């Protein structure tokens, strides 16, 4: 299963998602017999890459925020 495809976080994958949509539009039988497996694999790879980039950014933001909070607590401890 994949997350919602058309969101602001997945802008880099629009081309491969459009290819998957076109493949799905060819009909149920084509999709059910594995005709769209390659397109689906490409979408999964792209979404994974987007997610890894997003989590790396979030991790860096959290690290900076944690350091800021620790420095504030250190100042409070030194003053008391």
UniProtKB/TrEMBL annotation:
Function: Required for mitochondrial cytochrome c oxidase (COX) assembly and respiration.
PANTHER family xref list: COX ASSEMBLY MITOCHONDRIAL PROTEIN, COX ASSEMBLY MITOCHONDRIAL PROTEIN 2 HOMOLOG
Pfam family, one: Cmc1
The protein, known as: COX assembly mitochondrial protein
Organism: Lepraria finkii
Highest taxon in the source lineage: Eukaryota
Subcellular location(s) of the protein: Mitochondrion inner membrane
Keywords recorded for this protein, A-Z: Chaperone, Disulfide bond, Membrane, Mitochondrion, Mitochondrion inner membrane
Primary subcellular site in the record, as a coarse category: mitochondrion
InterPro entries given in the database record: Cyt_c_biogenesis_Cmc1-like (IPR013892)
Family label: Belongs to the CMC family.
Keyword Repressor: no
